[in-house]
Structures
1.
Amino acid sequence: MTIEEIIDIQMHAFNNRSIEEMMPLYTDDVKIYNFSDHQLTVDGKENCEEMFSKLFEQSPNLYAEIIKTIFFDTKAIVHEYVSGRNGDDIKKEQVVIFEIQNQKISRMDIMRS
C-alpha cells in the first residue's frame, strides 16, 4: 500500500467515524503529539483507539475536508478543515503530519489554529 493510499483510507475512515477501518492503519506503538508544545497526547494503539472512539461518539457530524496534502519521503502533511468536533460545527483549520513506517501510521503531529 502506498503512503497516498494509507492517507486516503485514513481520511475516509475518519469521515465515516469507522474505528474498524481506521485502527489497522496504525502501528502498535503509534504516538500522537501536539505540535505546538511537543506534548505526547496518545501513546500506543490502544490509547489511540480509545481517543478516536470517544471523539467519534461525541462528534456525530465530524468531518475533515482536505485543503492540500504534501507527500515527502515517509511523511504526509495534510492541511485540512475539521468541523463537528465535539459538537462544534465551526470549521477549524489544522495541519497533521503523518509519519508512515512499514505501511502503517507510526506518528502524528497535530497543529491547530
2.
Amino acid sequence: MATHRIGLDRLPPAARTAVEDHTGPLLMVEEAAEGFNSEIAARVTSATGSWHVKGLRTDHPRAWTQRREAAVAPFLTGLAPALRWRVETAGWDLLGFEALGGHHADYTPGSPDLPEVAALLSRVGGTACPGVELRRAEQRLEHYAAHPDDLRFFAGPHLLHTDLNHANVLVDGRARLVDWAWATRGAAWLDAGYWAVWLVAAGHTPASAERWAAEVPSWSTAPAEGVTAFAAANARLWSEIAAADPSAWTRRLATAATTWHTYRRAG
C-alpha cells in the first residue's frame, strides 16, 4: 500500500531545523511526485548544495524500511546515491542522500536505457551482501509461492534490491538504483526476475523480458523450474496488491505478472 505523502513544510519545526543544521537554510524544495514508500520525499537546495530527503515518522508501521535503507547505504558505493546525513528527532527519521541527476529509466522496447539497467544489475550481483539484518527472499515470498518447496529456489546469500520500478533507476551516463528500503538477501538471479515483470508491464513480450534478464550474468544460475515458481509467486503478489489498491499502475503490474506466469506455464 502506498504511504500518504506530505510536504516538507509540515514537518515539526525541530525536525526542519535539524535538517537545516546539515544543509543550511533551504532556498528551494521540490516535492517528488514518484515513490510510494516515504511520507517525505523531496529534493532540497541550499547555498551549499542539493540533497534528496526522504523520511517516515518513527512510529510509522514501515519505519523499519527507513532503518534498513540507512544500514545498507554504506555498502552501495557506485550503485546508489550516497547517504550524506541522517536526522532522528521530533518523531521523524529523515535521510539526506546525494542528489543525482539524470532521468528515470525507460523500460520500453528499444530503449537505450536497457543495456545500462542490465549493467547496473550486473554490478549489484557482484556486490558482497553486507552483514546487516535483511529480510530473506524466501521469507518475503512464502505467502505467494504455489508450493512450500518452491521457496528453496529463492533462498541465497546475495544482496538484492527487489523493487525494479523504473522510477527507482536513474540514468546519467550510467544507471544507479535509489530506494533500497526493501533490500533483501536471496538468490542472485531474483533482481533480474523482478526486472522482467516491470519489462512486461512496459510493453515487452515475456520472451523479450527474459532475453533482457539474460543480459544479467546471474540469470544463468536460475533453474527453469525456479523461474516459473518465481513468476507464479509474483502473479499472486501483484494480484493481491491490485485487489487492495486497484489503481492503474497496480493493475498494469498484476496483468504483466500474470502474463509472464502464463507464458512460463505454456513453455
3.
Amino acid sequence: MTAVAGATFTAAAFNQFVRDNLLETAPAKATAASQLFVSTGPNAIATRVPTQASVTTNQSTSSSTFTDLSTVGPRVTLETGTIAFCWFGASQAHSANDNETACSVAVSGASTVAASNAWQHSTDGVTAGNYVRGTSFHIFTGLTPGVNVFTMKYRLGVSGTASFRDRELGVLPL
C-alpha cells in the first residue's frame, strides 16, 4: 500500500498492511517460552527449542568402543536445521589407575553421526575409583534438517571397567 494524503485508511487496509505484517514478526510467531528463531532460507524463519536431559544413575561398561549404558543416554530428541551446539558431561571413574574413560555423542534420526574420539570428553591418569567431573562441547554441522536424536555414548581405553554418573546433555538446535 502507498499512503496518499487525504485518502481514507480503512480497517481492511489496516488489517492487510499493518496487522498482517506484524503477525509475521518473531514475537508474533513465538508459541511458547524459551523458543529461538533461526533463518531457514531467504525471508523464512523457524522456531527452535534448546533441550537438555540427564541421567544420575551410576553405571559401568567394559567396552573399548562407544556404547550405551544400561540406562541409555541421556538422550535429546528435537527439530534441528543443519547445525546444533551440543554440551555433554559426566562424572567418570576407572577401576584401575591411569586408565582412560570417555563419553561422546551420537546423532540418529534425520542424520546419522557416530560417537567419535574427535569430540569425546575423556579422563586419564586418575587413581582407581576416583570420579572426575568434566564437560565438553561440540558443534555438529552438516546435519539433515528434521527431527534428530542426540545420545551420549561411553567407552574405556583398555581393560577394566569405566563408571559414569551424573550424565548431562544439552542441545541448542539451529
